[in-house]
Amino acid sequence: MSRPNRPKFLPLVPAAAPALLVGAALLGTAGAAHGAVLPEERADAMYKTYDGGGLLVKGPAVLVRKNFMDKVSVSAGYSVDQVSGASIDMVVLGASELREERKQKDLSIDYLRGKVTYTVGVSNSLENDYDANSAYVSISQDMFGDLTTVSLSASRGWDKITRVQGRERARDPNFERRLDRDSWSVGVSQVLTKHLIGNFDYEAITEQGYLQNPYRAIRFLSPDGQSFSTAPEVYPETRTSNAAALRLKYYLPWRAAVTGGYRYFFDTWDIRAHTGEVGYTQPFFDGALTADLQLRYYVQSAANFYSDLFPRENFQNFVGRDKELAAMNTQSVGLELTWDFLKSQRWFLKRASASVRYDYIMYSYDDFRDASVRGVRPGTEPLYEYDATVGQIWFSVWF
Questions:
Q1: What topology does CATH give the domain 19-398?
Q2: H-type alpha helices, the chain
Q3: pLDDT in the model for residue 16
Q4: SS3 assignment, position 43
Q5: What is the pTM of this model?
């Protein structure tokens, strides 16, 4: 019995995603090991929503994989995120409600030779003020009687950041910045016993260029001490981050499985983060229905140039007030149900399934305050916190 083979869609998160959702990707994929066989031919269609912190993100996604000559597998994906609402940063600055759309296209090719799988892929994402392009290569090999799988990958990203202005939200012709990103990762999957599988993943990312948000601002105390003023953020132009994750899956005698994972993250901005995760998978009705329960806890320290309220303007060289750079913690619970409504060959289909997933996430900040609260002295506003929900529903067919 194995966990449902979930389609590899990109995570549904706003552009300035909380570190929990981005960082958890390594934990979420640590259990996937490339065997010395091509992935199965399949097609997936998904609809996803994120609602929290004043933002609503929703949209469809599709993914199709086709194999050729038992040696080559081609995968193509397309997704749309429609973003609306106003985050706490926009509310404080008095900005109008956000309405934009992000479209992403992905293409990858796997080539199998013996026990080695070679993969190349490209991705393109377009928004009204952000263009992102990336390419990656990876190699995965089974060894030691297929009990061990080792994978290596490298990727390169080129992002163009602009900003929009006016009611028409047209791009500002006088503002264009660039961000380059390189990442390297290594992963090891090991069958430890007939009931226990372990995975270790490590990833290093270097970024250079414009790393801030052109719309966000810091706040600093006015001379009277009873109000605050705002000024643009100023970030360093380089950042290097590292993340290591360990995940274990144990298969229980009654055809169930329990998982546990830990991830450690650190970067050159002095952010340190820990993620812990436990999960339980249980099939019902002879495997026709599978339930997957997941609990996750995340905590991080603040960046070394972050402050909720600076004592004065130009207080230091680098200044930032992005809440995702603040000291924070999150707790989340997720439930996923998968129904295999077609388990044997019918027409051209080998099998088919329908899945639904719901996550409830609670965000708490230790040093980021709700500056939209008026009538109190700056720096004494209540600490900011909010809850978010993530919903996904998808259908998968194998052919």
A1: Porin (2.40.160)
A2: 19-29, 88-93
A3: 36
A4: strand
A5: 0.88
